[in-house]
Amino acid sequence: MRASDADRDRVADALREAYAEGRLDVDEHNERLERAYQAKTLGDLTPLLSDLPQRHLTATPAPMGGAPHPQASMPPDYAPGSKISAIFAEQKRGGRWLVPAQTTAAAVFGSITIDLREAVLTQREIVIIANAVFGSIQIKVPPGVVVHDEGTAVFGSRTGSDRGPVGDVPLGPNAPVVIVRGVALFGEVSVKYPKASKLGKFLGL
């Protein structure tokens, strides 16, 4: 049976929950998430959750004519939004953490680093509102993430958005998306991508 977008999203939610609990490492999570969004049939999705606890299997698609399974719940520390502020200070958010649908960052005469390389995105598309006033905000993204800049710079700079990571594999239609908004007023908002490997540079990727 062909898989729907809702089927793929349910499995992706279960994988994010398993990663947040430490049941999958970052490589396993990324590999399974990519396979989930590329899945064509329900049979392609089932193996992705087969070695996880039974409650994670509630995210698998329901059979035709059967009652729908409940959506996988997010971990208890999930919040619909978060705020990061640095006023004459430095703030860093990194490691394994849950990225809500929207994050607001404000750096006033300070600096903020938002590291998404090991983070769990609670949505395929997230928004980061980055306001830098005489300060700087740097966003670090992992391979395979699309970044769109919808912000404004006034006597400031915004760099690194609206392109794919250097040397990265071609991005699929279901690749995670990070939308960056906000204002750089006498400040800087930048996106940092993974460095291309030596082989990638040699091949011109």
Descriptive report:
Helix 1 packs antiparallel against helix 2. With 205 residues, the protein is α/β, with parallel strands linked by helices. It has four helices and 14 strands. The protein starts with a helix and ends with a helix. The model is unreliable at 56-79, 165-169 and 198-205 (pLDDT under 50). The chain has two domains: 5-59, no CATH class; 81-203, no CATH class.
Short key terms for the protein model shown above:
alpha/beta, 5-stranded parallel beta sheet, 4 helices, 14 strands, disordered C terminus
Euclidean distance between termini CA atoms: 37 Å
Query: What percent strand?
Result: 25-35%
Shape: elongated
Estimated helix fraction: 10-25%
The whole-angstrom Rg is 19 Å
Strand runs, count:
14
Structural class based on helices, strands and sheet pairing: alpha/beta
Number of contiguous helices: 4
In sequence order, what are the helices and strands, one letter per element?
HHHEEEEEEEEEEEEEEH
| Low-confidence regions | 56-79, 165-169, 198-205
**How many independent structural domains?**
2
Question: What is the makeup of the main sheet?
Answer: 7 strands, parallel
- Average pLDDT works out at 78
At a glance:
This protein has four helices and 14 strands. It has helices at 5-20, 26-38, 42-45, 198-203; strands at 81-87, 90-93, 98-99, 102-108, 111-115, 120-121, 125-133, 136-140, 146-149, 152-154, 157-159, 177-181, 183-185, 188-192.
